[in-house]
Each structure stands twice: as structure tokens, then as C-alpha cells.
Amino acid sequence: MSWAAGRDRNICKRITFTQDEWERVRNLYEELTRYAPEHRSFSSYARRMLSERRIHVTEIRPLTDPEPLAREIGRIGVNVNQIAHWANANEHITAEQVAELRASFARIERLLGDLFADKREARKDV
Asked: What residues does the Bacterial mobilisation domain cover (predicted)?
């Protein structure tokens, strides 16, 4: 039995690149396939690029994009550290400061919960 027998795509072509060409192709492939799961294999990507001369990719970010969340959590962490430093220096902490710390941790938990919920939803869609 030959390699081509029983295959839908039974024509195989080889292509060669210089190192610079390959770097450009690889970078473009990695950039485009990040948001186009239907082209995760290089064969699928190359076939589409060669036959249609383009791939249209629409980047859809989840409602809870991790980058702004990371910044927000970082700000909350700074506030928590400032309160902890102040409490250590003064050897006491007020009930209001404890409430602020608890609220900060609750906000972090909500932000992370939203992020993981979006991630689970995104996996269902793929």
C-alpha cells in the first residue's frame, strides 16, 4: 500500500527556506495560529496560505483579559503590603484596616474566579 492510498490529500510537495525566510514564516505562523485554532498544524496553515493567499484572523479576547487583571491584582497587593508594613511598624491595626484587607482579598478571589470561569467557557467553545 502506498503513502497516498486512502488519503484525501494525496499530493505531497516539499518546500525549502533560507534561515531568514523560515524565521519570518515561523513567526507569522505562531502569531496567526494563536487566535485561529483551526490552523494549529503547520500543514493546515500552509495549505490555506498557499491556496487562498491569506488567512483572516479575528482576535477575540475574553471579557476578563488577564493583563488588566494582573495589573489590578498587583495594585491590590501593593495596598495589602502597605497596610502590613504600617501594622508591623505601629504594632497594631484598626478594624477598618482589617476590613479593607478582607475586601481586597475578596476582590482578588472574584477577579481570579471570573478569569477561570472565562477560561472554562472558552474551552467549551473550541
From this structure: 71-112
